Amino acid sequence: MQWILLTEEDYVTTNWSGGTTTQLAIAPQESVYANRDFLWRFSSAKVILEHSDFTPLPDYNRLIATVKGGLDMKVGDGARFSLAPYQMYSFDGAVSVESWGCCTDFNLMLRKGQCQGTLQALTLSAGSAVSWTAPVSAPEPFPRRTLAVYCGQGQVSLPEDHKTASAGQFLLCREAEDKPVCLESSQGAQLITAVIYSR
Fold first, then answer.
1. Is the dihedral of CA 157, 172, 141, 122 positive or negative?
2. Among 44, 42, 49, which residue's Cα sits nearest to residue 22?
3. What does the alpha-carbon distance between residue 54 and residue 47 come to, in Å, rounded to a whole number?
4. In this structure, what are the phi and psi dihedrals at residue 67, rounded to the nearest 5 degrees?
5. Per residue in 56-80, pLDDT tens?
6. CA–CA separation, 92 and 17 (whole Å)
7. Upstream peptide bond of 28 is cis (omega within 30 degrees of 0)
């Protein structure tokens, strides 16, 4: 498997109605978010308004977690609820979403019918190592596997690939094998791991 390390120099930051959004990675790589022609997209948004509305994305399913600060959300006609840091929530991008609170979040957008994926929070204590495996198996129609590790706090290493990510950095493997990934941390880390399955 070939992992790459993405840092702020590789990211693309744009404005949205509630603050800024930073694209960490997108597929296909030549896709443009504004054209809504992408298969999947990882991003991190800074919400600077106390009350904001999410951008509608009717062709996509979305997964979100906060990495700094809490967030209250109201999805469609549902009740308002609180999202704690590193708590995952998934929803249909076609449904209206209101949010309250200033935070930094982490997002995964998945094109409906063309890919599936999941996010998982993972905490490593100082000096620890874990063998991480995707929490869900590949659906039969989607044999290709993409893995990602976002470092929200601390530092994490892939010893087999000689890659280390610090807070705010992103490890990505676009063509991953179906095998465990060794993650190590000398100082401790708070991570969001992801798997995407596609055709």
1. positive
2. 44
3. 10
4. -110, -10
5. 999 999 999 999 988 999 999 999 9
6. 19
7. yes
